[in-house]
Protein backbone atom coordinates (compact mmCIF):
# COMPACT_ATOMS: atom_id res chain seq x y z
CA UNK A 1 0.00 0.00 0.00
CA UNK A 2 2.82 2.40 0.84
CA UNK A 3 4.49 1.79 -2.53
CA UNK A 4 1.19 2.60 -4.26
CA UNK A 5 0.85 5.84 -2.29
CA UNK A 6 4.43 6.78 -3.12
CA UNK A 7 3.84 6.11 -6.83
CA UNK A 8 0.72 8.28 -6.76
CA UNK A 9 2.66 11.03 -5.00
CA UNK A 10 5.36 10.82 -7.69
CA UNK A 11 2.73 11.01 -10.42
CA UNK A 12 1.06 14.05 -8.91
CA UNK A 13 4.46 15.67 -8.39
CA UNK A 14 5.42 15.01 -12.00
CA UNK A 15 2.18 16.54 -13.23
CA UNK A 16 2.59 19.55 -10.98
CA UNK A 17 6.16 20.02 -12.21
CA UNK A 18 5.06 19.65 -15.83
CA UNK A 19 2.27 22.18 -15.39
CA UNK A 20 4.55 24.50 -13.47
CA UNK A 21 7.22 24.47 -16.14
CA UNK A 22 4.71 25.05 -18.86
CA UNK A 23 2.95 27.71 -16.86
CA UNK A 24 6.14 29.61 -16.12
CA UNK A 25 7.05 29.56 -19.78
CA UNK A 26 3.50 30.47 -20.77
CA UNK A 27 3.47 33.52 -18.49
CA UNK A 28 5.65 35.37 -20.98
CA UNK A 29 3.43 34.50 -23.95
CA UNK A 30 1.39 37.38 -25.35
CA UNK A 31 -2.38 37.18 -24.98
CA UNK A 32 -4.20 35.22 -27.66
CA UNK A 33 -1.29 33.09 -28.87
CA UNK A 34 -0.91 29.36 -28.73
CA UNK A 35 -2.86 26.24 -29.42
CA UNK A 36 -6.61 26.83 -29.67
CA UNK A 37 -5.92 30.52 -29.11
CA UNK A 38 -5.86 30.17 -25.35
CA UNK A 39 -3.61 32.52 -23.43
CA UNK A 40 -1.86 29.73 -21.53
CA UNK A 41 -1.70 27.32 -24.43
CA UNK A 42 1.78 28.08 -25.71
CA UNK A 43 4.79 27.43 -23.58
CA UNK A 44 7.87 28.90 -25.29
CA UNK A 45 11.02 27.02 -24.47
CA UNK A 46 9.29 23.69 -24.16
CA UNK A 47 9.19 22.57 -20.56
CA UNK A 48 7.86 19.06 -20.27
CA UNK A 49 5.10 19.73 -22.78
CA UNK A 50 7.42 20.27 -25.71
CA UNK A 51 6.16 23.80 -26.05
CA UNK A 52 2.40 23.29 -25.93
CA UNK A 53 0.24 22.87 -22.87
CA UNK A 54 -2.66 22.72 -25.32
CA UNK A 55 -1.13 19.62 -26.88
CA UNK A 56 -1.05 17.88 -23.51
CA UNK A 57 -4.66 18.85 -22.93
CA UNK A 58 -5.40 17.29 -26.33
CA UNK A 59 -3.56 14.10 -25.29
CA UNK A 60 -5.78 13.74 -22.23
CA UNK A 61 -8.95 14.75 -24.10
CA UNK A 62 -9.54 17.70 -21.79
CA UNK A 63 -13.03 19.12 -22.05
CA UNK A 64 -13.66 22.66 -23.19
CA UNK A 65 -14.64 23.47 -19.61
CA UNK A 66 -11.31 22.12 -18.30
CA UNK A 67 -9.39 24.06 -20.94
CA UNK A 68 -11.26 27.23 -20.07
CA UNK A 69 -10.60 26.78 -16.34
CA UNK A 70 -6.89 26.08 -16.88
CA UNK A 71 -6.54 29.05 -19.23
CA UNK A 72 -8.22 31.26 -16.61
CA UNK A 73 -5.90 29.96 -13.87
CA UNK A 74 -2.74 30.75 -15.82
CA UNK A 75 -4.15 34.05 -17.10
CA UNK A 76 -4.74 35.15 -13.51
CA UNK A 77 -1.23 34.08 -12.55
CA UNK A 78 0.26 35.98 -15.49
CA UNK A 79 -1.73 39.07 -14.49
CA UNK A 80 -0.48 38.74 -10.92
CA UNK A 81 3.09 38.60 -12.22
CA UNK A 82 2.81 41.22 -14.97
CA UNK A 83 4.27 43.98 -12.80
CA UNK A 84 7.28 41.83 -12.06
CA UNK A 85 8.43 41.92 -15.68
CA UNK A 86 9.02 45.66 -15.54
CA UNK A 87 10.62 45.42 -12.10
CA UNK A 88 12.83 42.60 -13.35
CA UNK A 89 13.92 44.63 -16.35
CA UNK A 90 14.87 47.50 -14.03
CA UNK A 91 16.92 45.13 -11.86
CA UNK A 92 18.74 43.85 -14.95
CA UNK A 93 19.47 47.46 -15.97
CA UNK A 94 20.77 48.19 -12.46
CA UNK A 95 23.01 45.16 -12.60
CA UNK A 96 24.37 46.15 -16.01
CA UNK A 97 25.06 49.66 -14.72
CA UNK A 98 26.86 48.27 -11.67
CA UNK A 99 29.06 46.03 -13.81
CA UNK A 100 29.95 48.86 -16.20
CA UNK A 101 30.66 51.43 -13.49
CA UNK A 102 34.25 52.66 -13.11
CA UNK A 103 34.44 50.93 -9.72
CA UNK A 104 32.81 47.55 -9.08
CA UNK A 105 30.62 47.67 -5.97
CA UNK A 106 30.36 44.04 -4.90
CA UNK A 107 27.88 44.80 -2.10
CA UNK A 108 25.52 46.61 -4.49
CA UNK A 109 25.77 43.79 -7.03
CA UNK A 110 24.98 41.27 -4.31
CA UNK A 111 21.98 43.34 -3.15
CA UNK A 112 20.54 43.41 -6.69
CA UNK A 113 21.22 39.69 -7.07
CA UNK A 114 19.28 39.02 -3.89
CA UNK A 115 16.38 41.18 -5.10
CA UNK A 116 16.35 39.23 -8.37
CA UNK A 117 16.39 35.95 -6.46
CA UNK A 118 13.47 37.06 -4.29
CA UNK A 119 11.54 38.09 -7.39
CA UNK A 120 12.19 34.74 -9.08
CA UNK A 121 11.13 32.91 -5.92
CA UNK A 122 7.87 34.87 -5.75
CA UNK A 123 7.13 34.13 -9.41
CA UNK A 124 7.97 30.46 -8.96
CA UNK A 125 5.69 30.24 -5.92
CA UNK A 126 2.81 31.91 -7.78
CA UNK A 127 3.19 29.67 -10.83
CA UNK A 128 3.49 26.61 -8.61
CA UNK A 129 0.16 27.51 -7.02
CA UNK A 130 -1.35 28.01 -10.48
CA UNK A 131 -0.03 24.58 -11.49
CA UNK A 132 -1.58 22.98 -8.43
CA UNK A 133 -4.88 24.68 -9.20
CA UNK A 134 -4.68 23.53 -12.84
CA UNK A 135 -3.84 19.97 -11.81
CA UNK A 136 -6.94 19.92 -9.61
CA UNK A 137 -9.07 20.68 -12.68
CA UNK A 138 -7.91 17.44 -14.33
CA UNK A 139 -9.02 13.98 -13.32
CA UNK A 140 -6.56 11.57 -11.69
CA UNK A 141 -6.55 9.58 -14.94
CA UNK A 142 -5.69 12.68 -16.97
CA UNK A 143 -2.88 13.60 -14.57
CA UNK A 144 -1.52 10.05 -14.78
CA UNK A 145 -1.58 10.23 -18.59
CA UNK A 146 0.33 13.53 -18.55
CA UNK A 147 2.87 12.02 -16.16
CA UNK A 148 3.26 9.02 -18.47
CA UNK A 149 3.81 11.20 -21.55
CA UNK A 150 6.23 13.44 -19.64
CA UNK A 151 8.16 10.39 -18.42
CA UNK A 152 8.48 9.02 -21.96
CA UNK A 153 9.61 12.41 -23.26
CA UNK A 154 12.14 12.73 -20.45
CA UNK A 155 13.52 9.27 -21.28
CA UNK A 156 13.84 10.23 -24.98
CA UNK A 157 15.64 13.44 -24.07
CA UNK A 158 18.01 11.56 -21.74
CA UNK A 159 18.74 9.08 -24.52
CA UNK A 160 19.72 11.91 -26.87
CA UNK A 161 22.07 13.37 -24.27
CA UNK A 162 24.01 10.15 -23.77
CA UNK A 163 27.50 10.27 -25.19
CA UNK A 164 27.79 8.04 -28.22
UniProtKB/TrEMBL annotation:
A Pfam family that the UniProt record links to this protein: Metal_resist
Domain of life: Bacteria
Primary location recorded for the protein, binned into one broad class: periplasm
Family the entry assigns: Belongs to the CpxP/Spy family.
The keyword Signal is annotated on this UniProt entry: yes
Localisation per UniProt entry: Periplasm
Name of the protein described by the UniProt record: Spy/CpxP family protein refolding chaperone
InterPro entries the UniProt entry points to: Cpx_auxiliary_protein, LTXXQ, Metal_resist
Organism of provenance: Pelomonas lactea
Keyword Signal: yes
UniProt entry keywords in alphabetical sequence: Periplasm, Signal
Signal peptide: 1-28
